[in-house]
Amino acid sequence: MPRKELEELQGKRLRATVKRVYENNAFYRRKFDEAGVRPDDIRGVEDIRKLPFTEKTDLRDNYPYGLLSVPRNEIVRMHASSGTTGKPTVVFYTKNDIRTWAQMFARCLRIAGVTKDDVFQVTPGYGLFTGGLGFHYGGEELGCMVIPMGPGDTRKQIEVMQDFGTTVLGGTVTYSLRIAEVCGELGIDPKSLGLRVGIFGAEHWSDGMRDKIEGIFGFEAFDIYGMSEMFGPGIGQDCQEHEGIHIWEDHFILEVLDKNGEPCSEGERGEIVLTPITKEGMPLLRYKTRDLSRLLGECSCGMTHRLIDRVNGRTDDMVIVRGVNVFPGQIESALMKYPQVGPEWYAYAYRNEFGSMDHLQIKVEANGTTKELLKIRDELLRELTSTLMGLKPELVFVPVGTLPRQEKKTRRLIDQRK
Question: Within 10 Å of residue 130's Cβ, how many Cβ atoms?
């Protein structure tokens, strides 16, 4: 769709969403009234900045049903976060929302080259987490054969791949690495599995990590973007050009804002703010995702949906060490440049025994001769120190298989000072 037509469609859908939210949700009606905004003030995409923000705390404050914009009896499904830091954040879907979500995810699969002839093995968890069912419904919508494995029992996963001819693997990068490791234990070359596409989300991973897993499996890896507050996985993905993430702008209005809430210029990093314009059950207006990215130019694939850079961190993933903002993506991008360095790593911010000095320690699995590793260590320390604005980390190489393995979403930058 030409960009002008796409923006006209966005404006039409935004007006309808704002009207429905104002008329049916007391929380938003109060926020609009406090901001002096009426639905009639929103005429097009350019008026999005008149609307108030929505933050994660608003979901918890209005738990469980306070953000619904349709009657309760029109809701056909709910999903929720784990609630490990308090009340879970809950999201709701009408029947049409489920259909819309499936269509968006099917679009992601299609631009990755997946067809109805593929066999799609789904490894994210089913249940309250949006992952498994998002992948599942998208695969069925596209028409390929879906294998609903869920996480864990990795030997069984490999057996199923071999027996049923799995061609597409969906899940997290972390779990794909675990599959490769178990293949090694079984004497199986991961390339022999015949996978040709990997669709990975829920974690931030670098281009260097993409190169590593593509080398291990011999497939093409795609970064799928999403969050439960905006349907779930499938609201955007990189295409086969791998120049950035296409956000499906017929379903969302995309903003990238600085810390003052002002629009970032192209190439300037800021927080992704999203407004769903086709969601019925619980549309969150100008939702501050906490994900950090930047707007990019047009993609050479020709799609008119705008590109954002791959998300390389979150405002709540960031750790400050001696005044320097440290993000997982910065560390991984440097580590993955070296073939001797494995994909498993963790970084720890800690305070010395006297409590007077903060330190950053990076542990990474590596394999090579002592001479090779000493040379790599020196080069990596120089690059990391430069990337981290003069903060020199402690870099520790450990044998392959030493660090803990996860089958779910992995947090690699850990603050031990809390």
Answer: 27
Beta bridge partners of 276: 252
Residues, the chain: 418
Mean pLDDT of 353-369: 84
3-state secondary structure of 319: strand
Within 13 A of 409's CA, how many CA atoms are on the CB side? 13
| Contact status, residue 362 vs residue 331, Cβ threshold 8 Å | yes
d(CA 209, CA 173): 9
Taking the C-alpha atoms of residue 137 and residue 95, their distance in angstroms, rounded to an integer, is 13
Residues 6+ apart with CB under 8 A from 312: 204, 206, 292, 293, 327, 328, 329, 330, 333
Structure tokens at 132: 């498994």
- Measured over the CA atoms of residue 103, residue 104, residue 105 and residue 110, the dihedral's sign is positive
Both tokens of residue 405? 């393995």
Q: Is residue 307 within 8 Å of residue 297, measured between CB atoms?
A: yes
Structure tokens at 374: 């000493």
Predicted TM-score (pTM) of this structure: 0.83
**What is the distance between the alpha carbons of residues 255 and 267, in angstroms, rounded to a whole number?**
13
Q: Is residue 84 very low, low, confident or very high in pLDDT (cuts 50, 70, 90)?
A: very low
Q: What is the DSSP letter of 39?
A: G
Residue indicated by tokens 């809950």: 90
